[in-house]
């Protein structure tokens, strides 16, 4: 029987770990026998207008045959305001859900993607046309901090209920980490205390954990000669730099990394900061004022094909992420990717779900503690080759659980159980 997977997400070209997860789940679905995958996402101009950090379009890797990216046009004119884009998204989903093809519909980010899928399923079923849809809703974390938590703080019950009811209406509810699940349950508990609802209990019972899916094949068994060549093209040498790759945002702790690097014994190393984001200019200015300014390099054009080699060639990778009102790291995909690629040990914090991404395979520092970053870097520089190899091997073995085929199989085992129960 023809099978289709629909994934609703902020997809490529957004520089975002969970948009990459959508790509990886799509590729895994094709490998596991789905004949068709459709990634339903947003028009490029809308993503640009939102200020999201985008990859250059010419660096986006092609999808496998069978995977189609759809960007529905908005519905209505300027008088509809932002609802135009949601209307286009929901409308296209209704069409997909009523064409007779058995479909699994997965949404990443509860708001607005899960609510859009839930609305589309309800409309599709009311048309009287045949509908064969199983829904998966994945909470990433920022969808909770940015929407549900804010609604709780502002006592906006209706908006919070809309998100949570859409989530719980899904056939399979997952979160990208135990931290994320705990966060949802805690915010739901606060809502319950104010309004007498039962969201915390329902969420605790319904939500499973599904870690982000990573294409490990991009990071494993890298050719040493190609690593050297890729580094040389950037003016780098193996073990000659400390590496950061993630969004350039205040919550990522790049300022602490700059300070920690400047005070370390890595006086013959560079600090390579790769990424784009809302704080880019502020961080460039901060780096320019650092005593190590002449050894700090910013790269804003690193694509998916290049990053494994930059991970592998680094003497250390650092992501000293810290909790902020607008963002808390709910997993740490870049840390798992780095572990697969090799390179020197990772330095990070236990903010949010990071501990689930690294286990005991990284050097842990406190948040906003540049002196501890300095100490961690100095420790790495003093490691023997055997000690470094042991860190690499343990980190890679731990991170293999996040390979996209493993994650896909565990997730769709839940879908199969749900379908058996429904039957």
Q: Helix proportion of residues, in percent? A: 40-55%
> Please, what is the average pLDDT?
93
Total strands: the figure is 13
Q: Return residue spans where pLDDT drops below 50 for at least 5 consecutive residues.
A: none
**Oligomeric form:** single chain
Give a short account of the largest sheet.
7 strands, parallel
Q: Helix-strand pattern, N to C?
A: EHEHEHEHEHHEHHEHEHEHEHEHEHEHHH
Given helix and strand content, the structural type is alpha/beta
Strand content: 5-15%
End-to-end Cα distance? 17 Å
Structural overview:
By secondary structure, the protein is of the alpha/beta class. The protein is 47% helix and 13% strand. It has 17 helices and 13 strands. The protein has helices spanning 17-31, 44-49, 83-97, 110-126, 142-153, 157-168, 178-195, 199-206, 224-233, 254-262, 280-288, 307-313, 333-341, 354-358, 370-381, 385-399, 404-422; strands spanning 4-8, 36-40, 67-70, 103-108, 133-139, 172-175, 207-209, 241-245, 270-274, 296-299, 316-319, 346-348, 363-364. The protein has a seven-stranded parallel sheet, sandwiched between helices. Helix 3 packs across helix 4. The radius of gyration is 22 Å and the shape is globular.
Give the SSE map.
Elements (H helix, E strand, L loop, with lengths): L3 E5 L8 H15 L4 E5 L3 H6 L17 E4 L12 H15 L5 E6 L1 H17 L6 E7 L2 H12 L3 H12 L3 E4 L2 H18 L3 H8 E3 L14 H10 L7 E5 L8 H9 L7 E5 L5 H9 L7 E4 L7 H7 L2 E4 L13 H9 L4 E3 L5 H5 L4 E2 L5 H12 L3 H15 L4 H19 L1
Parallel strand pairs: 1-2, 1-4, 2-3, 4-5, 5-6, 6-7, 8-9, 8-11, 9-10, 11-12, 12-13
Helix pairs in contact: 1-17, 3-4, 4-6, 5-6, 5-7, 7-8, 9-12, 10-15, 13-16
